[in-house]
Every structure is written in C-alpha cells, then in structure tokens.
Amino acid sequence: MKALVTGGGGYLGSRIARMLYARGDDVVILGRRQYPEHAKAGIPAIQADLRDAAAIVKACEGVDAVFHVGAFVGIWGRRRIFWDINVNGTKNVLAGCRAHGVRKLVYTSSASVVFDEKALCGVNESQPYATRYLAAYPETKATAERMILAANEPTLATVALRPHLIWGPGDPHLIPRVIERARHRRLVQVGDGENLVDVTYVDNAAEAHLQAADALTATAPCAGRAYFLSQGEPVPLWPWLTEILAAAGVPKVTEIVSYRRAYRVGALLEVVNRFVPMLREPRMTRFLAVQLAKSHFFDISAARRDLGYQPRISTAEGVRRLRAWLCASCGRNSSSGSGAG
After folding, report:
1. Which residues pair with 69 in a beta bridge?
2. Which residues in the chain land under pLDDT 50?
3. What count of Cα atoms within 13 Å lies in the side-chain half-sphere of residue 243?
C-alpha cells in the first residue's frame, strides 16, 4: 500500500508514518516544513500547506490510502485560521482523493465534536454532534468530519477516528502545556476534582489508524462511520495530572476554583481577548473550564468490534514510559517521580 500521511511530521502523524514504514508500506508524509529525521529513516516528505489546493491534489497522485491527520489544534485562536486549515484543508484532501482515485481515506477527528457543556459518561457513536461549540477547534473538526463521512462511496471509502487526549513520551502539546502552566502557577483545579476523562496513548491511537485502513473497504462495516478511541478506562483527571507533574518535578496544583467561577472568568477573558487581540491566549476559556471540570469518557466497543482495536499499551505502562521520558528530559532518576505527589 502506498500511503500519504498529512501532518506526518506531527506527534501522531509521525507515529502513523513510522508504523506504516516499519511493516513495509510505501509512505510519504506531507507537512509545512522539511523533516530530516524522517528522511534519514527513509520516509520522504512533501512540503506543502493544507490550504494549498493544487499542492494537496498533486500529493494524492498514485496513492492508495490517505491518512488525513494534519490540523490546526488549540483551545483558542482566530476562527478563520481554524476554518481555513481544518475545513478547507479537508476539502482539498477530498478533492485530491477524487482526482486521483484514492481508495481509502482515514480521517483523524476528535471526541470533542460531540462535547458541549454537559458531562459525557460512557456515550457511544450514537451521541449527536454538539449543538453549540465553545471553541473553533471542535466546531471545525465536526464540520470536516461530516464532510469526510458524507464523501464515503464505492470508489472512495472513508472512516473517521476520534481519539481523546493523545499523550505519551515526546508529546509536544498536552503534557508540556500542563507542566508549563503548573510550573508558573497558571494551572488551577476546576471543580471538585472527581471528574473522569478518557485519554489515549499515542501508539494506541496510531495503531488504530493502521487497523482502520486495513479494515476499510467500500462494503466494510466501518465505511462512512466515526469511532471513539481511548485507553478504554477513564482516569480521574486531577490525580492523573498530579502524577505526571510529580514525574516532571513540579508540585501538585493547590489552587481550586468552582466550575461556575471558571466558566464566568473564561467568558470574560474571551471577550477581552477579542477586543485586544494582541494579548496571549487567555488563562481560562469556557471550553477549558468545561474540559477541566466535567467528566468525558466514551464507549469504544464499536472500534473493538469493527476495527479490531485493542489498546495494547495500558495507561499504567504509558505513564511509566512518560515518567522515564520526563525524568530523562529533566536529568533526574525516574524513581524520584514515581509518586502522585
């Protein structure tokens, strides 16, 4: 199989590309810059922006399967940028697939497409899309996911995967962001701290993409469908974060605010930031308040059934690997960060 991985230089995209290459597939990654580490490993790269329609269409030439992982990710930012990359970029990928007869398209979506202001406890794919989004990222990912699933047809089979909170060693997004905020006392516990959330170890998420591509045909049960992905066992968010902070040598979060207060502050800061756009990302937003305070975990039985998905790396093993990586990064012995703090 010849595969194109958009966002192949990113955290999840890199894992997918390397797994494909390791099993003998012909892989090309697409990203906005050059990736010498992939070139050394024998994985060529196409330098292009998802917003460049002509370049994206050309990149799909001669490809059997596209893994559309690339996206603009964040809890805050200009809506126009989210829309141009996540929605219009997906339109360009679909155009490339249709122009060159690509048979399979695996889309990296997000569990946040169904998340509004209510707790989600063990819901499955029958959960409808949110009726109101508190951030541009989930809104644009939902729009793109709808496009991907609607494009499923006999000549182009499509599937969308919804991993939730991807993490692990080398994570450049979630874990460093939490640690940096906590280190500078900008991270607060929102709510009573008893909320449960799903997380997804990066290798499990990557392997699910390969399983989806292998299972995907025009008549497969997964064609035209979306699937939640996770570890299959939600974690208590704040004790889990405390364990990670301890591994990084950062004290546990002690400041606690109510959900209602955090939500109100987030709404206010969003308004201020819109009128003074030069300010950095708000310390709190409505979306962040909901994410930090409410439970959100999902039923992954459909992915197990239709894709053969099985999270091989347990949460405990993933934390052990993350702890070792964090301690190595900090130059400390991993045993010093073994407790929950």
Report:
1. none
2. 334-341
3. 16
DSSP secondary structure of 141-203: HHHHHHHHHHT-BTTBEEEEEEE-SEE-TT-SSHHHHHHHHHHTT---EESSS--EE--EEHH
Active site residues: 137
Q: What's the gap between Cα 315 and its chain centre?
A: 17
Least Cα distance to 186 among 107, 245, 146 occurs for 245
Distance CA 237, CA 293 (A): 9
pLDDT score of 24 = 97
Cα 229 from Cα 300, distance rounded (Å): 6
pLDDT confidence of residue 333: 54
Report helix, strand or coil for 4. strand
Compute CA distances 339 → 25, 27, 182, 252, 310, whole Å. 41, 41, 17, 11, 28
197-240: pLDDT as tens digits: 999 999 999 999 999 999 999 999 999 999 999 999 999 999 99
**Token reading at 250:** 């950062």
Domains contained in the chain, CATH given: 2-167+199-230+296-313 (3.40.50.720)
